[in-house]
């Protein structure tokens, strides 16, 4: 049995060695049951889905056979063969239509209507990570909403492009500081054969636009059909049109759909009942200029939105400063009375800009690179941060990088982010001799948090850093120090982000449940070098874990066994993951193992026969070396990642923790240069 670990925090005194173990972040180890329809000639999509899920698969020409087959086997069938067979469909599996948009296949809308979900994709290029994201969302194995509700402030970048292709070159920069990205479906302009644009873009066009956006961003997508009365372009004469477009967004796995409050209750209820893992933003905009936050009906509007909304958004166009004060009063009343759902309230127009800085839930932001602002008074993330600072809502702090050498790429990246987002903070670098205490740095007057690289041993810092996350405690290492303020006092908190970087890397091309109950092999010189990896693997439900180069004794040692001889390697179960935490000069030692457990690529995509072989290799070594094991791993059929991937994901998490800002992985990779990790 594998041991699962939770990542929440408990005071050190509550932590017993060998204890921990409750599950929060990982899905149950249950294998999802899927039935996949594919276009003619696209059957290998079934094997790709199965590989991403770490499950077996089979092709069939009979719906009945799929119904009767083992539930954990993924069944695939050509959509051309379906005919009337779905008439007796018993819904025992999730039915997913897959459609290739660049293959000359007709899109069969009627078939999509009969499916639970639809996955749209291109082959040139093909994005496997998009398959992993789609499946993780629709199967509920990741929950961006749950993660965002833990953040003190969230924003969304509201794009206004008539065609999302125009956004792609700048997407990474546009999204800095945004927690989600809104696609304004009503603003999309589908070119018509006669040279005009359609008033309402077709679902086919919208689907391709959503697909294109999702292929290129890791941000959750908010799918919005804004009506004409609320500053949008979707006509209001047929509410059924909204249902049709929004229901499709759920099928496409959009993380959020924006459902306007004026829509008939029947429609809002039906969407809420069928929302799957998507979340609903209940939206209300008043452009009349006569809206009153103080009116008793305004609370009723909130309650109506809350009935079917996971977030309630109420925005009004105002002309006086007084209305910002009234909104703040309304906000505090609502938040006291209704802790759920979160309330996003703001005033539009130049006079309402103050409220755009006060609102903490999904504040819409713009960016100078967007063609137009989505609503009057919208501000950029940088403008909001600057305003917060000047109003005393965001104090200037010194954020530290603490390490044995000045890691220029990471330090420069922090400085770049602070500038790009107009954060008032200063970035300082402090050199730390190996094993030296860092207490004097943490006690500096303006200390606002730090990353520590290489990490600090928990045992050495317990006296001055007693409050730790579970992860830091179990791993035995602190790589991030946060300042938590509570009223007039503040306290220090030690955390570990490295394991999250490893976990995020592992789940880039595979869904979390693919790891559950599978074996892993871990190479390191010492337990300390391997413990963040062990924590990440356990968080994914991996087990057993075999080790080479060290023996595990600490709180994570359950189900972690050393491999002692070549005979052991031969006997060992096929590992699903190999992680090498060996230093660069030793990292070639892993190569014989990669070759020994090589993946037979004969049938493509890491599939051995009908068995998904998975096969993920992560090399945590940094620095130069003569031969790169990543290239060899790839040649032997492994999906391989290096330290740059893990470090970039770790940086995403570190920036989120230290300054509360979301900066995407792709931006970190883009802005930090290559080969510097
Ligand atoms: O609902 C909103 C808010 C908004 O109208 C604004 O005021 O910033 C911008 C829209 O894109 C978004 O859908």
From TrEMBL:
<dbReference type="InterPro" id="IPR013785">
    <property type="entry name" value="Aldolase_TIM"/>
</dbReference>
<dbReference type="GO" id="GO:0003855">
    <property type="term" value="F:3-dehydroquinate dehydratase activity"/>
</dbReference>
<dbReference type="InterPro" id="IPR001381">
    <property type="entry name" value="DHquinase_I"/>
</dbReference>
<dbReference type="InterPro" id="IPR050068">
    <property type="entry name" value="MurA_subfamily"/>
</dbReference>
<dbReference type="Pfam" id="PF01487">
    <property type="entry name" value="DHquinase_I"/>
</dbReference>
<protein>
    <submittedName>
        <fullName>Aldolase</fullName>
    </submittedName>
</protein>
